[in-house]
Specification:
It is an enzyme of class 2 (transferase). The chain is α/β, with parallel strands linked by helices. About 35% of the residues lie in helices and about 20% in strands. The chain folds into three domains: about 210 residues, Endonuclease Chain A (Endonuclease, Chain A, 2-Layer Sandwich), CATH 3.30.870.10; about 230 residues, polyphosphate kinase like, CATH 3.30.1840.10; about 180 residues, Endonuclease, Chain A, CATH 3.30.870.10.
Amino acid sequence: MIEHEVLDAGLGDADDDDFDLSEIFDSQLPDNRYLDREVSWLAFNRRVLELAEDATLPLLERSNFLAIFASNLDEFFMVRVAGLKRRILTGLAVPTNVGRSPQEVLTDIADLAHSLQARHADVWTHEVKPALAEVGIEIVSWESLSHEERDRLYEYFQAHVFPVLMPLAVDPAHPFPYISGLSLNLAIRIRNAKTSRQEFARLKVPPMLPRFVRVSREGDAVRYLPLESLISNHLEDLFPGMEILDHHAFRLTRNEDVVVEEDETENLIQALEAELLRRRFGPPIRLEVTEDMDDLTLSLLIKELDITEQEVYRLPGLLDLRGLFDLSRIDRPELHYAPHVPTTALAFQPPEQNGRADIFAAIRKADVLVHHPYESFATSVQAFLEQAAKDPHVLAIKQTLYRTSGDSPIVQALIDAAEAGKQVLALVEVKARFDEAANIVWARKLEKAGVHVVYGLVGLKTHCKLALVIREEDGILRSYSHIGTGNYNPKTSRIYEDFGLFTVDEQVGRDLTRLFNELSGYAIEKKFKRLLVAPLHLRKGLLRLIDRERRNALAGRPARIRIKVNSMVDEQIIDALYRASQVGVPVEVWVRGICSLKPGVEGMSENITVRSILGRYLEHSRIFAFHNDGDPQVYIGSADMMHRNLDRRVEALVRVVAPAHLKELTDLFDLAMDDATSSWHLGPDGEWVRHSVGPEGTPLSDMQDRTMTNVQRRRRARAVR
């Protein structure tokens, strides 16, 4: 297992195991001190929906937020709701910190999900869709088309749609067909003209075809027909000689969580592939139907799918609004966010125009902190690995891969390095949820190229974002390290906000070497100096840093805690923050998604402030900053404050030490927590309230826009010098 004592990381020189956690937990806190994590997640997705409702945002971006909401909610059902149901049915204990039974939690989140889905459908039907029509982007009905348009679409149907359709009858000779998860389907009732017998058929809307079929285009004005509407108006071609009585769209969500007992299998890849196959046949957990579906058809679906009425969601208008992602490809710049081109980080800018930067020389001069997507991933992380692959002085590359993209230049750089004769180690996390199949493909491709591929430690996911390059310089081996908060994924780097630290610090290099040795072999390493590493000691290290601020406050010294994460759920961390607040420590938590912490409760958390910021970029970085009586202890890394991150994953935080980098992180936090910045504020009752307009009705500042401006300003200042 991964262990470490924290020496130079600012936690003192004593062995970390000497730190007694019981010293922190010496006061009573109320039982109802946590917010429900599932309800908090739904509150996060409601914030996404509020962006879709915001009439000040560009129209196609509002449409995109509707698609993001739909995609998020699908995953919530496939994983969180499915997990709750599986545990209830199998009698397993369900973690709950809010004093309610699992069934009560499931009922509450079902009610909330119903109301949110209805609101989501309403925003599309009555706000975004009409607004798009006003600017020339229409989603039309079959009834509104002219005869000429119908004829033209019929030709398209015959040529491109009809050949791939597969109608499946349900009768004594044809059992009810398997319905794949998240597929869009038509439930069709027909009458046999010869026997007058009513029959049922299911027709899957082909997912490989465009969801919206273009009807016409004149300049910027474009009209689309939903694919399911085109199909449903030509059912006679599929059922010749039959009378079409009725048809309705429906969509099923299945349990798609993957569970692999690693300690009971000899081959993780084979076990995972078998589990992925099982995922396709997971039990149904949600049935979405159009609100006009007749009772006879609905009763048949409920019976055949073995689903309860509580799990049925009647929705107006279109089902599966993930299809709105397609509208983001429409070339109407005025309906999108203004384009932003990432700049090259100052340290990595080439000395001459059109020249090529020496990444290694830049890192040797000083640590480099890069902020994506404001600063380019391609000219920093990608360039770092591509230069390492080509550099004859580079002897070895070691890297973790949690999620990457198709045709990834990161993977290609590792392949190029291996083929050039370098030692290359890739730790591919094949258990990364919903990327399992893709990561298996990458792992095998890397192995064929000669890369040493490992899959981490049994029972743990490797979630840390690490790259280590070993280069020979004047007969000495030098370590070039990168520790990031986000995945090595060129695609998501353009929309995910993340930090990455490049350094030649010898201690960081030794830390990463030891950590990679443990991940790939059997080494038991206990000494990490600039890293905090999960699963055994990251939580303890953070608790100790939090408690130091509490003790400083008790001693009358300045104290402050700032934490930026995607999720704040871990009870021990939350309790430590409560106790720091109780003695007057100002605590600022900047969280994107789930937050189980209750801020502003008198006597418990009145010194805690919680903010959330959502926008064009997904806030993804994790920052942990402690005042430490004027000697700041600031870390960045991959870990959220959740049980899975602290107990069941390999995570790594690195301490940031350069004064300029500390100022950059502090300035970012100042901007995020400023009352003049648009954000959501969490209240003690668990309600998130959006603050986007000032007292005089003027819009508050957009933090992400301001950050773009600040990065550009730094670059211009460098150019002037």
